Amino acid sequence: MSTMTNVIPAGTRRPERRLQPGQPRRGAAVATIVLILGALYCLVPVVWVLIASTKSNSELFTTFTFAPGASLFDNLSDLFTYGGGSFALWAMNSVIYAGGGAVASTLISTMAGYALAKYDFPGRQVWFYAILAGVLLPGITLAIPQYLLMAKLGLAGSYWSVLLPSLISPFGIFLARVYAQSAVPSDMLEAARIDGAGDARIFTSIALPMMVPGMVTVFLLQFVGIWNNFLLPFIMLSDESKYPLTVGLFTLLSKGSGTPSLYSLAIIGSAVSIIPLIVMMLVLQRYWRLDLVSGGLKG
After folding, report:
1. What is the pTM of this model?
2. Is the dihedral of CA 51, 56, 62, 68 positive or negative?
3. Confidence of residue 105 (pLDDT cuts 50, 70, 90)
4. Residue 108 and residue 172: Cα distance in Å, rounded?
């Protein structure tokens, strides 16, 4: 009696097991639910601030609902007239700190990242590892040493005491290095050197345009980080006229225990302070590349 065996010819692929049309995909469902819960966790406080900014003091402290009020324009008028225009001054200071610091930090990060990615010099890996160590350090550990250094230089309490520590971003340099490695072909740089182009011209004419998407990402991260920074200006500054929005709104909250009406000003001020961030995200999103590692050559 012979036994029959099923022999699969060489080169024939085994049939793949496919999901039936009605078969549930539990992993995708769980991931979707987690993402929705995370989005709600982040968005609900923002929505509450936006709605609370439309309420009067009596509505704010007597009811807790997500129904909007009718006092938005009155609150805005009180906000911009408080202290003879203190809020507008704080907003201008935030623009100076965040705008100037982000632009300068982006240029420094781009040049440093490009050099680490495309030049071979002694100690390159040591510098790169030192930058990685800087990424791991929390900002709070550097705040006091930075204040002592600025005080030694006579810059404590000035605009420079907030701007200068913001110029060097270890994470920005790391991000620029990663992007430069993939977005700027080394063969193109070598061809430019053979044609007689100098390093400065190669960087400004060839590398810099290719790194624009990465630069936009670094700029946004730095702008948002400096705009929302509280600890550094709180330690460095003592003059209220030089406060950014974060410290200025904190002073409103600290004074609100004696004057409850300032709580509503702090809330409407918080709502107004996020508008520049939203506008910047919408304006600059067309320059983004979600894949910083491989998107440079495809953009």
Report:
1. 0.80
2. negative
3. very high
4. 9
